[in-house]
Amino acid sequence: MLRFTALILLCAATAAVSPAWSQTPAQPIFATTKVEGTDNVYIFRYLNHQAMFVVTSAGVIATDPIGYVRREASQVYLDEIKKITSQPVKYAIYSHHHYDHIAGGKPFKDAGATFVAHTRAKERLAQLKDPHTVLPDETLQRKRTITLGDTTIELSYVGLNHSDSTLVMRLPKQKILFAVDFIPVGSVPGRGMIDSYPLEWEGSLKRVLAMDWKWLIPGHPAPGDRLGTKQDVQNLLAMLQDMLAEVREAARAGKCWDAAEKEVKLEKYASVPGYEQNLPFVVRRYCGLWGRGT
Ligand SMILES: [Zn+2]
């Protein structure tokens, strides 16, 4: 059964305002919550973005500073960590190169954290020179395991998907995964489609399904702040495959771009949050693929 009851999950969320169709009541601006069943894994949420951090016996491993929508978010994030532990933040790991998740790392840098990202993220950020985004100190291409105190975190590149620089972060002991934007939990992908790699995206979802984990922490809150599961990944994969096939038919009938955007509907997914608003993004991206080969 599809369990799409989430509020919209947009990579490029630009405002604190919940989408009109969201059923989620007003929330505080930020919150820090310990992941149930663990004694050291936390989610920090600020507005509609969230990051994971892990408190170990030898320091803290933090992810995504999320200081883009509001600059103060990353300082709040660091202050929240300090309320939980006196251990220093040793690592700040970027999920991918998009500013809405990784801008604002200066407080973490000043606190002595080593920044880690995919090689392509560093290359891209070096080109863009965003004054609010810290360049990674260390990079990886495929895989890296970081052990800090009693905790191990495994960083994996699973191929092209929503970006070309996405790292999946896995805590083997806790069977937890942190993955951002290419696995929206319980919604139709929207703006995150814009610069995506649709064919390769499917392969990266299959690689994630083959990994050993139970719970997924997404980069944007899921309905009721629930964690994602492998079923969510399977649902997303099926939905993307259906949409891909539908737009291929429209493209081969010469309907891309405008006619396809007006005509393509996938009623099967009409009740999935984000359907109405996000379908045009999906059709446009797949029209690029099937109509142009891009
Ligand atoms: Zn993104």
Account of the 3D structure:
With 294 residues, the protein is of the alpha/beta class. The protein has a domain of 200 residues: Metallo-beta-lactamase, Chain A, CATH 3.60.15.10. Helix content is 31%, strand content 21%. It contains eight helices and twelve strands. The strands form two sheets. It has a seven-stranded mixed beta sheet. Strands 8-9-10-11-12 form a five-stranded mixed beta sheet, with no helix packed on it. A hairpin with a 2-residue loop joins strand 2 and strand 3. Helix 5 packs antiparallel against helix 6 and helix 6 packs across helix 8. It is globular. The N terminus is likely disordered. It binds zinc ion. Zinc ion binds next to loops.
Strand order of the largest sheet: 1-2-3-4-5-6-7
The CATH architecture of the domain at 30-229 would be: 4-Layer Sandwich
CATH superfamily of the domain at 30-229: Ribonuclease Z/Hydroxyacylglutathione hydrolase-like
Sketch the major β-sheet: 7 strands, mixed
Give unreliable regions as ranges. Answer: 1-23
Instruction: Give the rounded overall mean pLDDT.
Output: 91
**Secondary structure: helix percent:** 25-40%
